[in-house]
Specification:
Order of helices and strands: HHHHHHHHHHHH
CATH topology: Urease accessory protein UreF
Number of domains: 1
Shape: globular
CATH class: Mainly Alpha
CATH architecture: Orthogonal Bundle
Helix content: over 70%
Mean pLDDT: 86
Largest sheet: none
Distance between the termini: 35 Å
Number of helices: 12
Number of strands: 0
Strand content: under 5%
């Protein structure tokens, strides 16, 4: 029961990680008429769940949980470097690292008893920790069930982007909630696939996201940092 409450706290929009600052390239797509309608926006989110970088993030997060359970902290550095290499743009890399570093600090502030373990993890990772790595550390140290963690991670990601879409497209709040509701079966399907995914099957198709992020870096007016 406590583990479930901790998970809800981690994925709550009020948890101060700064996720609301980011749109992951969506802002450029909206300006260039890439997502002008509700249906297009929902399709874009669905494509990300099926093929996007969020799948790789979740897979890495699960491997961090496994590495800590096996007391193999050297894997943290490996997967953190791997994520660093898969962030094709400066903004996407900065987003992931800012949120990861913020999460690690908050975890230590929440529970002083976890600080020695967090410190050992930080020593392996170095100065810059990606968000999926920090989330995996939290799941491992608080012994949260992995499949529930995956569902929470995906739902939090989806909610944040829908919130960005509500501000930009614009969508009504009810329409935004309807999108989240309609994509729930796909979240469940994605979670079930990723929990059993082998390392050799780890993939993502991110060229569209990368191009949107590259253009967002030089966008004349913008609300979001990425």
């Amino acid at each position: 029961m406590v583990q479930q409450l901790i998970l809800w706290q981690l994925i709550n929009s009020n948890f101060p990680l700064g996720a609301y600052n980011y749109s992951e390239g969506l802002e450029y797509l909206v300006e260039s008429a890439g997502c002008p309608e509700i249906e297009s926006f929902q399709d874009w989110l669905g494509l990300h769940l099926r093929y996007g970088s969020i799948r790789a993030e979740v897979s890495v997060m699960l491997r961090i949980v496994q590495a800590i359970a096996a007391d193999d902290l050297t894997q943290l550095q490996y997967w953190n470097s791997w994520l660093n290499g898969t962030r094709e743009t400066k903004e996407l890399r900065q987003q992931s690292i800012q949120m990861g570093n913020s999460l690690l600090k908050l975890l230590g502030d929440l529970d002083e008893n976890k600080r020695p373990q967090l410190g050992a993890c930080r020593e392996q990772i170095g100065k810059n920790c990606h968000y999926a790595i920090a989330f995996g550390i939290a799941i491992a140290l608080w012994d949260i069930e992995p499949q529930q963690a995956v569902l929470g991670y995906l739902h939090s990601w989806l909610s944040n982007l829908v919130s960005a879409g509500v501000k930009m497209i614009p969508l009504g709040q009810t329409q935004g909630q309807r999108i989240i509701y309609q994509l729930q079966p796909l979240i469940i399907e994605t979670a079930e696939t990723l929990v059993t995914q082998k390392e050799m099957d780890l993939y993502a198709c991110t060229w569209g996201l990368s191009l949107a992020s590259m253009n967002h870096e030089t966008q004349y007016t913008r609300l979001f940092r990425s």
